[in-house]
Design brief:
Oligomer: single chain
Radius of gyration: 23 Å
Number of helices: 14
Structural class: alpha+beta
Helix content: 25-40%
Number of strands: 17
Distance between the termini: 21 Å
Shape: globular
Largest sheet: 15 strands, mixed
Length: 413
């Protein structure tokens, strides 16, 4: 059933009413105020939660110049993990399958062939005992194991927890297994640390879950990954395609009403440029690096508790630093994260910024190594369905279905 023209026009009329009332003409001025008065540093309850690394500035570079510049890191690795999405079965099992892979520039077939596969399983039966040992396969290039999530409370966020823990464990285990072979640059597809897990601390129903063995193991993997790269002097960054942090907007809202839904919207305001009323589309814009100690990033701040994990380097080395890149061609904002143990060095900050700007300019999206990893790790819709049907046959049970599965198909979420 399509929307009748009369109803479409009715909705348009309502939208015009809203547009007449909402005036964002002063948002640019307020964004400039935030930039000039709030971010050097941004203080909440007497604690600096965000501050510049070095000089605070905004920069721009032509897309063509950035794409053609000499790359500080001619070779790079990308890391990603794909899943089939959490699936509940009539026998009480909640399951997800995570599949991690690395891409490399220039291409390395052995690197691309290696995979880490984890089946995350939650079932309310303490008597069950799964073999959780690693099993090598594909002539030793890949390994697989079952992740039994018996320590996750069934009452809380079961499907989301199974998904997050399976994905992050596969990704971090794959990175740790191959870290010693990386001597150029590692780019994670996503943040430096597993922020989805760290954000559980702010949810009363989930905070206690971070004390359990599996979530702590996942978080520790990322801490050890950062440590290892810092120890060897090899750069590691996280490329965040859809930044959703509210560390700045929440802090600003404590003093005055912030008109943006998240920090990305604020940075777009600060970095979008116009000439003669049109958006300038041939230049990438960006800012300096910032140290972030708010929100999920507070866990690995120098004064954070790191979940009680042993930090083998100075605590400030683990702090999250980031800078945003705005690509006007598609009107999107990305952020790049790296540990302060790297970015305290001005030459490293400049090299990483140059590399990431060159990647975005030439790829019109994530770095090439990340795109390769995404292609390798992604589990397609047909493969997901085939895997779910295979599990149904093997277990002699069916998935738990709802009406929306019939109406929209099982990939609607």
């Amino acid at each position: 059933m399509t929307l009748d023209p009369v109803h479409f026009e009715g909705i348009a009329t309502l939208a015009r009413q809203v547009g007449d009332e909402v005036d964002d003409g002063d948002h640019q001025g307020f964004a400039e105020t935030v930039w000039e008065e709030f971010l050097d540093p941004l203080v909440v309850n007497g604690r600096p939660v965000l501050e510049p690394v070095g000089r605070r500035f905004r920069g721009r570079v032509s897309v063509e110049d950035a794409a053609l510049c000499e790359r500080p890191y001619p070779g790079s690795h990308g890391l990603d993990s794909g899943t089939i999405n959490p699936t509940s079965y009539k026998n009480g099992v909640v399951m997800d399958v995570a599949h991690a892979a690395m891409g490399r520039v220039p291409t390395d077939l052995d690197c691309h062939r290696a995979r880490t596969v984890i089946i995350g399983v939650h079932v309310d039966d303490d008597a069950l005992r799964f073999s959780t040992d690693w099993v090598m396969y594909d002539e030793g290039y890949s390994r697989r194991r079952v992740l039994h999530l018996g320590d996750i409370d069934r009452k809380h966020y079961t499907e989301g927890a199974v998904h997050a823990l399976s994905l992050y464990l596969a990704e971090s285990e794959h990175a740790l297994a191959h870290a010693e072979g990386i001597d150029d640059l590692l780019v994670l597809d996503g943040p430096l640390y597993p922020k989805e897990l760290l954000s559980w601390r702010d949810r009363a129903d989930l905070a206690g879950q971070l004390d359990e063995q599996t979530p702590r193991r996942v978080v520790e993997n990322y801490a050890r990954l950062v440590e290892g790269f810092l120890d060897r002097g090899v750069p590691i960054v996280g490329f965040v395609k859809n930044p959703a942090s509210r560390r700045i907007t929440n802090a600003v809202s404590n003093e005055t009403r912030a008109p943006w839904t998240d920090d990305a919207a604020l940075f777009v305001r600060l970095l979008e440029r116009h000439e003669d009323g049109e958006r300038v589309r041939n230049e990438l814009t960006y800012t300096n690096w910032f140290v972030s100690r708010g929100g999920a990033d507070r866990t690995f701040a120098a004064d954070g508790d790191a979940l009680g994990l042993d930090r083998r380097r100075p605590p400030e080395d683990y702090e999250v630093t980031f800078f945003p890149i705005y690509d006007p061609r598609d009107d999107v904002l990305y952020t790049v994260e790296a540990p302060y143990g790297l970015t305290r060095d001005p030459e490293v900050r400049e090299a990483l910024r140059t590399q990431m700007l060159a990647e975005v300019a030439s790829q019109r999206g994530p770095p090439e190594a990340v795109s390769k990893a995404d292609e390798l790790a992604r589990i397609g819709a047909e493969e997901k369905e085939a895997l779910r049907r295979m599990v149904e046959r093997e277990w002699g049970t069916d998935r738990t279905r709802q009406y929306d599965d019939l109406r929209w198909g099982e990939e609607f979420f």
